[in-house]
């Protein structure tokens, strides 16, 4: 029979007793008693493990108390969002049907820092701070002199970075007396995060999940339902937007743009309901900067400075969340890393799209935003990285890209899953399909360092785990996965529908 370790409180007490046998019991199991006691005493008193036996894992002890707003430090401000009907610059009152007052203020804010409410920090404490991990085994496999670090956000209850904004969005809605929120989701990471957050504050939650992901990832739907959310496949017959899409294409795989149209329609036509968005908008990226603020402190603590920072990008919340605080340091002359966004070859808004005013949704209900876009009615092929199947990029990230502060590349999904297996079989973590794009780019960079002999420090955004995405891995392992690409003709048709604005 396997021997069990004594409980932490009992062991801490009994190790102080003369002649205690618990120390020898730990030694018999191959555990250093003093080391075990030190590590678990910290766990016992803080309810979170902040000390790890592995030298390649760092968890800083404090959660940042403020979000960072890059908008305040940009030398040239991004173009304003426009009202979808008048094409006049958006004012806060234009968003009152969709968002609570505090989030609207954050969307328009020019303050450099915004305080995080204590109640939100308390919930963040369930999983934050998240670990910064050195990928030593991957480095060894690649034979690279580069040092690879990844900021791992998969420790949250929902398994990704999305609760970083879902929790404050739900909290601000609850504070204003809102009882129901609606949203869209692609792969289901955002829908899961919002369902989790709503369960904490007693909010009703209704989610439109992109049909392709709804079919590919049934357990994400069940996860949302477990937290109390109502989930619909999008396009649906519930909304006018969904009915129109199904009328035109009954077999539509859906897209994030379509799902946004459906959720926005419900929020705009029901006074007791507000809308929550998981990416792209300023206040969403603001909340995600807790990732980069933590990471800056962690890298400083170990005396490392990143030469290259890499992250996947669909709407841009994870990439922006990690990189925006580093851009601040870059603007101040303290750091100068290369910032590289990686998008799917099947939906390359940064690398192949145009920088223009376009709708955030397919039907054209949302404000017009200046962003890199493939056209608001572009429906990407159903790749497994459902969270990256979005026709546009966050306006702030698009603007930063235009200013030349970052670069972007696109990688096909087969190469991404090849990289994911290398990562999983060395580092142990099974990545979600979205960050496999970042992993593939990191491997490219690390192998380039192998050729040149450069000892670069590579930092990667690892936005979540892939425990609910194993069907995608099964398809790859069986040799059935193929690279999907966008159709030039389809993009041409979609871009022809981008609004032409008259000055």
TrEMBL record:
One of its GO terms (molecular function) is tryptophan synthase activity. Its EC number is 4.2.1.20. The keyword Lyase applies. GO terms for cellular component: cytoplasm. It catalyses: (1S,2R)-1-C-(indol-3-yl)glycerol 3-phosphate + L-serine = D-glyceraldehyde 3-phosphate + L-tryptophan + H2O. Pathway: Amino-acid biosynthesis; L-tryptophan biosynthesis; L-tryptophan from chorismate: step 5/5. It comes from the Eukaryota. Residues 126-464 form the Tryptophan synthase beta chain-like PALP domain. Gene3D superfamilies: 3.40.50.1100. Keywords: Amino-acid biosynthesis, Aromatic amino acid biosynthesis, Lyase, Pyridoxal phosphate, Tryptophan biosynthesis. Its cofactor is pyridoxal 5'-phosphate. Tetramer of two alpha and two beta chains. NCBIfam families: PRK12391.1, trpB_rel. Belongs to the TrpB family. The beta subunit is responsible for the synthesis of L-tryptophan from indole and L-serine. This is tryptophan synthase.
């Amino acid at each position: 029979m396997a021997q069990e370790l004594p409980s932490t409180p009992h062991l801490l007490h009994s190790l102080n007793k003369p002649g205690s046998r618990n120390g020898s019991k730990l030694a018999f199991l191959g555990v250093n008693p003093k080391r075990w006691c030190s590590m678990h005493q910290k766990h016992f008193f803080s309810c979170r493990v902040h000390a790890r036996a592995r030298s390649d894992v760092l968890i800083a002890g404090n959660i940042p108390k403020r979000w960072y707003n890059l908008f305040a430090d940009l030398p040239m401000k991004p173009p304003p969002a426009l009202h979808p009907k008048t094409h006049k610059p958006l004012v806060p009152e234009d968003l009152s049907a969709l968002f609570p007052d505090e989030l609207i203020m954050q969307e328009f804010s020019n303050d450099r820092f915004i305080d995080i409410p204590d109640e939100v920090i308390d919930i963040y404490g369930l999983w934050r701070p998240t670990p910064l991990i050195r990928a030593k085994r991957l480095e060894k496999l690649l034979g690279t002199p580069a040092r690879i670090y990844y900021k791992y956000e998969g420790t949250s209850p929902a398994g990704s970075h999305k609760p970083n904004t879902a929790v404050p969005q739900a909290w601000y809605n609850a504070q204003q007396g809102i009882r129901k929120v609606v949203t869209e989701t692609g792969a289901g990471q955002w829908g899961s995060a919002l369902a989790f957050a709503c369960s904490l504050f007693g909010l009703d939650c209704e989610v439109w999940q992109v049909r392709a992901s709804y079919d590919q990832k049934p357990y994400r739907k069940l996860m949302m339902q477990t937290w109390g959310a109502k989930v619909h496949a999008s396009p649906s017959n519930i909304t006018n937007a969904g009915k129109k899409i199904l009328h035109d294409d009954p077999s539509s795989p859906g897209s994030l743009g379509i799902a946004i149209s459906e959720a926005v329609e419900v929020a705009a036509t029901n006074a007791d309901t507000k809308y929550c968005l998981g990416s792209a908008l300023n206040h969403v990226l603001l909340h995600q900067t807790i990732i980069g603020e933590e990471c800056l402190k962690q890298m400083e603590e170990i005396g490392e400075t990143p030469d290259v920072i890499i992250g996947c990008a669909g709407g841009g919340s994870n990439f922006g969340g990690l990189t925006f605080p580093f851009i601040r340091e870059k603007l101040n002359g303290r750091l100068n890393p290369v910032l590289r966004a990686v998008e799917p070859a099947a939906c390359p808004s940064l690398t192949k799209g145009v920088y223009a005013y376009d709708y955030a949704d397919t039907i054209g209900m949302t404000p017009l935003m200046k962003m890199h876009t493939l056209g608001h009615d572009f429906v990407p092929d159903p790749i497994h990285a459902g969270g990256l199947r979005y026709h546009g990029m966050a306006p702030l990230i698009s603007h930063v890209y235009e200013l030349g502060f970052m670069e972007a590349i696109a990688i096909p999904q087969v190469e991404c899953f090849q990289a994911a297996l290398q990562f999983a079989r060395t580092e142990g973590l099974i990545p979600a399909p979205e960050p496999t794009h970042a992993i593939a780019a990191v491997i490219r960079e690390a192998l380039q360092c192998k050729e040149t002999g450069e000892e670069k420090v590579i930092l990667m955004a690892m936005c979540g785990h892939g425990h609910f995405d194993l069907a995608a891995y099964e398809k790859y392992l069986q040799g059935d996965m193929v690279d999907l690409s966008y159709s030039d003709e389809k993009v041409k048709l979609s871009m022809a529908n981008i609004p032409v604005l008259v000055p």
